[in-house]
Amino acid sequence: MTLGLPENHPLQRLFRGLTESTFLSELGIGDPKLIGYVADLLARFVPNQEIWRLRDAEGTRLTRVALMVAEAESSSDEDRRRECHQHVGDFSLFWSGVYPEALPKLRASSSADHLIDFKEQGKRSYYLASTLTGDQADVLRRLSVEFDLCAFGLSRVRREWERFDTNRPCSKDGRVILA
Length: 179
Description:
Layout lengths: L9 H18 L4 H14 L2 H4 L13 H10 L3 H20 L5 H4 L11 H13 L6 H9 L1 H16 L17
Helix pairs in contact: 1-2, 1-9, 4-5, 5-7, 5-9, 7-8
């Protein structure tokens, strides 16, 4: 499920290709469901508003992991708890893997997240979400168990996309012209 970019968007295809190639060649992970989930995560978070999409009952945007977890724990609705825990897992994996240099700012001493270990919370949240869902339970459980490896994989995916020369000419459909 990609909310950020349409399935045929060039960035969606780029993320899928880079994730598949990197996870298979560098990590030895060939699980299409896991790779697809991680690639979709990147595409979902391209539009910045998707990273910050969780809101509380009053409509206030939840920008801290501690508040996202509190929202999950306080909800009596199982679907809402799953949604919040899954988002915390996604949020934690994204920042831990793609932009780990941003974690100190996210965990600033003045922040509610000051004492949160993003990796441990991501593992816990994926596990909890996996117990509350049917169709994605296996992938979420695997993300919980393989969180560190997937975060490392995302750092390698970032390295690969940063290698692209942004001055290379592109065709009308967004593909880089190699010759």
